């Protein structure tokens, strides 16, 4: 087996240990006579996994009492709609910070349901940036404030979160569990699983009980947080195999120690940014003050050189370094499970490429 270094932005690399463990139990899980994929979501084997995954998220993220941990379907994109459907009355206003492509998608959906006040807009800024929190002017009585903690495409990341009276809601799809966050500062955190948490197929939602209880309109049963919170995400069939894989990933994080993992994330990103900053050959796409530790975005002097860089990188068995199709350039997505030696290899390649160009 030759595993490549996988810089894809999501779905993205998973820990080899997790894949191997899943493989070992792929056809038969714990002498149950069947795969976990084939097991009833009401059976004892799956139930233990479901409960363990929730308990592990609570422990790893320090989720306090008074929050529900939910496994929902439809990806983070469905949350863009579910949030205003459940929390924003037609005549109410919600504040949004538009920091880029993902935040703007969240804004677009929310506008279907109520008044949206975009209190800061850096979507078109170059370099990509995050507004300073002391410049934000909140709407009085806003239903909530929505931010995108890490813009996966541009590579801009909030380093500090705003504090306001309204509940703070964060899309952490591309940096959840990659750094220490105080969950109690948030009304809700959500993330698609396919970057830091496991394979695609599930959105993790951490939501405060008072928000679960809020009713601002009549919504279809499956689109109410209350439906899922009151049934522990077992109102309908959950994506059980994805949740099983997510559970294995939480065990992997516990094994490594989250502090070690978080420190490694900072170190990995710094290694690449140090090469970017060393010369004028590379240009980082995000402001230094808010550079992402998860998605490192950069340009070369010309589009031709970028294409050549990418072609050569593929020959080195490193995949996914092309920037998002909407912005071009290059992007190294280095989530939790991306091995540090893969970063070292990229850094060597960058230096060598520059020398030869
Ligand atoms: N938010 C962010 C920050 C993302 O990066 C993505 C996916 N790349 C999404 C939302 C959408 O997630 P999904 O594909 O799970 O709907």
The count of domains is 2
In oligomeric terms, what are we looking at? single chain
So what's the overall shape? globular
Strand order of the largest sheet: 2-10-9-8-5-3-4
Q: In terms of structural class, how would the helical and strand content be classed?
A: alpha/beta
CATH superfamily of the largest domain: Type I PLP-dependent aspartate aminotransferase-like (Major domain)
Given this structure, which CATH class of the largest domain is correct? Alpha Beta
Q: How helical, in percent, are the residues?
A: 25-40%
Low-confidence stretches: none
Please state the average pLDDT score: 97
Largest sheet: 7 strands, mixed
Q: What is the strand tally?
A: 14
Count every helix, treating DSSP H or I runs of 4 or more residues as helices. Answer: 10
Instruction: Give the percentage of residues in beta strands.
Output: 15-25%
**CATH fold-level assignment of the largest domain:** Aspartate Aminotransferase, domain 2
Q: Terminal Cα separation, in Å?
A: 33 Å
Spell out the helices and strands N to C: EHHEHEHEEEEEEEHHHHEEHEEH
| Radius of gyration using CA atoms only | 21 Å
Can you list the ligands bound to this structure?
4'-deoxy-4'-aminopyridoxal-5'-phosphate
CATH architecture name of the largest domain: 3-Layer(aba) Sandwich
